[in-house]
## 1
Amino acid sequence: MIGPFLGLLDALENAFIGAYLNAIQEFATLASKARLKQARHEWVDPTYSPEELDYLAKVSAAIMGIECEHRVLGRVISNSNPANNRNYETNDGITAVYNGSSSAVVALTPFLTASTGQASRWQLRWRIKARFPSRCPVRLRLIRPVALGSG
């Protein structure tokens, strides 16, 4: 019975790793653009300073590290060898945090359901297979990231 749980854990951790990788990139890009605008004496959105955006990128990186540890721990429990099978983490096809069909929100939506039990596990596998057919049931395929929007 632990097999389906470990498969679910792997899928979730991979999705969260991809989400945090994108968050790091988005925060770093926003910080860089804000610094460039400040240097040019252009208007800068006062909501977050470049330093605060840098801090948010660092926090995202720290949380992503924990997600990576969770992923490896699940692989240790399932006797997957090697448990730490990656030199670099991937975004698992997630190209944005919130927007678009390849966003973290879209990837994680199938996991947000009120139902539980065996039926929901199979429903989850079917949803993942429909969304990411190349690596069903627990791996999400890697696609080339798209550039962030201008602004």
## 2
Amino acid sequence: MKSTSSAPRKKASVSSRQEWVPQPHQQKALNLLTSVANGGLFLDPGMGKTSIVLEAFRRFKAEGQVDKLIVLAPLRVASVAWPGELAKWSNFQDLTSTLVWGPKKDRRLEDDVDIYLINHEFLNTRSVTSLPPLLEKHRCMLVVDESTAFKNPSSKRFKTLRLLLPCFVRRYILTGTPIPNGVEGLWSQCFIIDEGGMLGSKLMKFRNTYMRPVFRPGVPVTLWEAAPGAVEKISDLVSPVVLQLKGEDYLKLPDYIFNEIAVDIPRKEYDLLEKELLLHLQSQTVASPNVASNIIRLRQVANGAVYTNTAFSEYEEIHTAKLDALEELLLELEGKPCLLLYQFAHDIDRIRRRVGIVPTLSNTTPSTAQRMCDQFVAGELPVLAGHPASMGHGLNLQGGGAHHMIWFGLDYNLEYWQQTLQRLRRQGNTAPSVTIHTIVANRTIEQTISQTLQDKNSNQQLFLTSLRDTLSIH
């Protein structure tokens, strides 16, 4: 593959590449993309969304329908997953690409290539002004990978992309978790597909049609929840142009085993903070920043430390209950490879002080992250750590048969939770099961978080099941 990139990767020889032959579920997805100019693939991680899109683009280009492919994706997905698929399959050997990233990202858009791999954050920079000339000169196809990054219609990235949408001749979104925090997040994602054709062009109209306000005494309405029957109605509307597939229906995947490790923590500081949070929640003049701050602090205490000066990352250790449990668990695993998820910077600092150097994917360059991933898959790293935000997308870590994942703490973000779990439960992992170890503090907010994740998951599963049922009828 000829390639122009700000982060060059070793090229695979043409002779070493395999031919990409779509599996039955991939053929279904390919059929959708080639039958609609604008659509979406809601496929579980590991089902081959990237190669499906590349094959569709290859066909469109060969038929003279499009000239260029613009991919908007998280940095690690853009710098690792997409180049990896291009290099792996012989079908794509004639496609060229460039990674639009780094100090010379503006100039990368001047490269004469077929595919431009662009980080989501690019839309928040001044360099985005370099994109319209490219779109005016060529017939471009847009793919928004991990489209939930655009679920907030008030975000700068969505507002910028919204202005550019009419410039593309084809538009597709990709995600495995379309509504991790409720149905409202689906509105802006579907807007990328058809500019409001399915779910309306105004968010407020969408809310009034498919949602209902959550009223709290003395507090302006800021929360909305799905109205009865709304999930099914929405799935009916989007089903003609969106395909939803579950990995377990098509692939042989390891089973999940969940192992909750409950630890007792000192109560004094935690109980004081909990009372303070309760006062905020009961107040009729509650300020959400205060509530959010209290919740974050409670999560920190549950993990064992709190920041005393966030600007300088200074913190005070309160207890070692979770560290004790983690050390015991790692001894139990006896060097078996495992992924370790942490929530705060002081978590990984304390973990390293206790168990020694642990490599982490957070705050690393794409090339360094790829090297660590390769070492982990090869069995050279017994533990690979990272924040769920850096672990959740674009990593294929199942190749070495790793089947243990440890969560040092929990967060409310369902997308991070689900996407990270599926870094190991993917096609190619020959282990019979993947064990998820969660170290949870007894009688703390972590137990509430665990239940909240289950509730959000039930709402998302209702939507995905409804969508799948609708598609099976059509």
## 3
Amino acid sequence: MLSRSLVGLVLFISICAVGANGQSASAPDCQFNYTLTNRTTEQTDGITNILIAAGVARTPSINNRQTLCNSWIMSVTVDGLSASSLSLDDSQNTYTPAGGTPTAWANWEGTVLLGTNPSTTTTSTQVSYQGFYPWLSVRLGSSTGTGSVYVTLYGWKTPTMIGQVFRLPNPITQDLLFTDATYDIGKLGATRPRDLFASRTIQAGSTIKSPQFELTINGGIFYFASRGSLTTPADGKFMFRDDAGTSFNQMIFGGATSAFPSLKRTTTNLIARLADDSADTTFQASAFISGGGTPSVGTCGTIGTGSKNTAGFITSATTGSCVSVLTFSGYTAATGWSCAINNSTTVANIIQQSGSSTTTATFTGTTVSGDVLRYNCFPY
């Protein structure tokens, strides 16, 4: 059997080291000690034993209108009993000319900061509460076996704290734990912290945001208020969108004036533009490799293997004069096509472009069947 005095001393020292609800290390303003027991030989240690009958018991009512404490810690040690369920109950006041008395008792109706109410344990626990009620009482709602429950209820007189704002010890020397996904650090308005400094990781389950920026963790979205977003739809892919999330206009490099370049999107095309979108600009590379579809050619020849819209070759199927029409695949020029073409087999036979449309280029000249005619074409 545990010594009641020893239990109370250990619990009191541990509580005063932290304080109620993060209060600085100060002695409690209110303290109530109880022993709930169904043992016939339980020690009293100067504390009146309260009989457990049929597994239940209740302490005398605490008139909190006199003590005026509103931050509480209930420390509990259970010895010998099992399946014990202990709660701190509260009650409103019934006014009578002769004096107030408790109304119907209820499980603590304020904020339970740590632990559960009722608490179920076979060893020991601490539960913290925040709030003021006129009447308080500790209730053993159920228990099994023979033994005792040692209860010490500590209370502090703290200012009324709206939104559960508490003063923490400085420095904090242990983990700061919350009931999961229930409470906040600061609120919008006048209760926000100023800066946050972390030496390692800031991990969020949903969103990190400011008035101008928002990072959505689930889904990987960087959102810039009224500007646009950056997402990653698949591994190794980055997608830029406008604020509506339906399109994208321009990516600029280094600045927003005509002194800087940009890439602008128009439907399915990219255009090199000045950053202020006032004019086109140059695009430089060591080489440009033609892609796209394979064009077709008329009866004067066959299109060469690997040929594309902007470069390739035609093998002539005609000896003599021929008019060949090259029809481009999958792309329509704004105005037409400008092409350079030469006969790389019979050099003396001259062939040249004689016409164009938004989808075709026409070549005219003299060839020998089998001549290779090499072309380069650009839309304009």
## 4
Amino acid sequence: MGIGKIKLRSSDMKGYTLLEVLVAVSILAVSSVYIFRSFFSALSAIEMSENRIAVMNAFNNDAAEIKFAVENRALSLPFNKSGEIKRSGTRYKYLVASDKPVDSKQLCRINIDYAWRQSGKTVHEKREIFTLYPADK
């Protein structure tokens, strides 16, 4: 091989071209964005599940207390109760409301509504329970 002669045979070339490197880096960047997005979506879903579990536990406790109070006439109908609880760093606002008994058998409806902030949005979880209000003696 003499001076000034350039040999361009593929068997003599080693390494990757700039274009191959750019394509590989862009594929890696796009795929990593989707991986991170799915990771953060999973974290958000876990947080929502934890909040719903906390609300359902609080709902079950409230429902049992309210049913017991209504059935033993410790609460007079209609009633409204609201407040706020804090569990695991999250504040949950609640509203419990009842109407007068809805029929002659003294069946009364009780609405329980929980609300909390998550990911910049207010999330509501509403439940409705029914219990018998004892008849006058």
